[in-house]
Every structure is written in C-alpha cells, then in structure tokens.
Design a protein that fits this description.
This protein is an alpha/beta fold. Helices cover 31% and strands 27% of the residues.
Length: 249
Amino acid sequence: MSPPLFWVDEVPRVGGEVVVAGNEGRHAVTVTRLGVGEQLLVGDGRGSVADCAVEAIRSKDTLVARAHGYTFIDRPRPTVTVIQALPKGERSELAVDLATEAGADRIVPWQSARCVARWTGKADKGIAKWKAAASAAAKQSRRPWIPDIGELATTTDVRAICAEVAADDGVVAVLHEDGAVPLRSLPLARASQIALVVGPEGGLDDAEIADLTALGATSVVLGPQVLRTSAAAAVALGAIGVLTDRWER
C-alpha cells in the first residue's frame, strides 16, 4: 500500500525538510496517526511529489519530515475537461469526487437548462465546495494534480469551451443515453484534448445537444445502462484511460 499523501505549499527536494501543519498536519498526526520514521508523500497539487519520512511530531497538528525522493509528474495526455451540469444535493460534490478520482484535469460547473439545482447568488459557495471535494479526492487517490475547478458556466460559456476544443483538433463528447455513436468510436487517442459534456438529472435539452453538435461535438452513448449524472464522467474517464495513453503508467 502506498503511503498517504498530504498537501503542502512547497515540495522539498531530496534531503530537504518539510513541515506539514494546519488541517493537513492534523489529519496526518491525529487521524492517520503517523509516527516518527513512518513514510508519507507530500505534494503541491501541481505535479510535484516527494517521498518523505517523519522526523518529529511537534503537536497534534504539526509534523516535520525529510524528503528522500522527489518526482515531477506531468499531466496525462490528452487532457480532459469535464463540463458538469449541476447535480442536485449531495450528488454535486459526489460528481466532483468521482471525476477527480478517475482523472479529470478540469471540471467546469454548468447551469444548464434542465438543472434542478441553482447556484444563482451562491456560485462562490458552490465552487468552494467543489474545490474542497477535488482536493480531498485527489489526495485520497494519490493524484499529483488537483483538477482545476472553473467558474460557473452559462450555456454561452460552454459553447465557447467546446468550440475552442474542437478548433484545436480536440474531441468534444456529449454524453447522452440516445447518443448517435459509442464513445470508443471517437478518435480519442489522436485528440489534442478532450471535453466531456454531462447533463443534469433531467438530461440535456434537445436544443443544447443540437447547439453543441453544430459546433463540432458528438453525441455519444457510454453503454447499455443509463448512468446517474454524478457517475457519468467517471465512467467515461475510465474508458478514455484505456482507449488512450492516459493510463499508460
């Protein structure tokens, strides 16, 4: 089993010392109960990770460790942006959690036409929850990168993102139970980048699908089951990991 990962502002190089404090330190000392001599990973969420050993426990929320290994891991290619229509209730953070564990590089919250959830006047709070969910999921899954969480997008914003990806020789896949083709039929391995568009519980509006496909997106189906909006991106990311070089490590 790999050592637990904790976030720090600055990842030390080999021989360097690092202090893990605050919420991360409390989790390391009080929850994980790390002791002197035990191994841990520290990362900055931007690709840098150091293998460390605990040298001292200073308090219930602070430990000191020394690095004996350092690695920088680039983002996998092609990068994947998940455009996630707002799920309702607890499924909102669950969608972010699952997409993060499956490898999303960027997650954009979208106020689509059929969204039951509404972030009007409280987008900052929703985005903060998504960022916290992404950070926790990346740490749990030992990811060197925390996915970027975008600002709340309108349909106009989503059109712009999809048009940009398509113009860059990327692939835009609109996940839909009545999709025209299976995901595996798209040229994923040759794509410069990939955008996955996921609708809300009530599904995407026909006008939204027509609008995005006119910009170069393809309406695709993942399989025989109808997936919840919170799980769809993670399932698609798993398929992309196998169909491209993203999971080659």
